[in-house]
Specification:
The protein has 134 residues and is α/β, with parallel strands linked by helices. The protein has seven helices and four strands; from the N terminus they run βαααβαβααβα. The chain has a four-stranded parallel β-sheet with strand order 2-1-3-4, with helices on both faces.
Length: 134
């Protein structure tokens, strides 16, 4: 069975209209997020991972959506995206996600990217046997 990954991030449809996201990441818009996430997901699948995504809002339903994504699944890795982690407005959401992961997926390795295009790099820091051969 291939290792499983849950990638957690902001719904790209919300990124362009959120002042805090625009301030935290002025060079990133919804189109960049969609393209980079798709590329990283494809690369992870090529490396043999099973990948699912969990897209969140700015807190209204984020915890419920995330808990539903974790319930009944056994993920090896959970990647919490930089858009949630590095936007100061979303610090409470990030804290809720970490606590929910500890509760519902205690064996999952937490990984953190620094942009939508660094997800593979984040996973490979914690799952080195899936690094491509040089």
């Amino acid at each position: 069975m291939s290792p499983s990954i849950l990638i957690v991030g902001l719904d790209p449809a919300l990124v362009d209209d959120a002042p805090s996201s625009r301030a935290a990441f002025p060079e990133i818009n919804a189109e960049v997020v969609v393209v980079d996430v798709a590329k990283e997901r494809a690369r992870l699948e090529e490396l043999g991972f099973t990948v699912e995504a969990c897209l969140l809002d700015y807190g209204q339903t984020a915890e419920a959506v995330y808990r539903a994504a974790l319930t009944g699944k056994d993920y090896d890795i959970v990647v919490i995206g930089a858009g949630i982690r590095l936007d100061p407005v979303l610090t409470p959401v990030f804290e809720v996600l970490v606590d929910a992961t500890r509760e519902l997926a205690p064996r999952a390795q937490l990984c953190f990217n620094v942009s939508p295009s660094t997800t593979v790099e984040a996973v490979q820091r914690w799952w080195p046997e899936r690094r491509p051969l040089a």
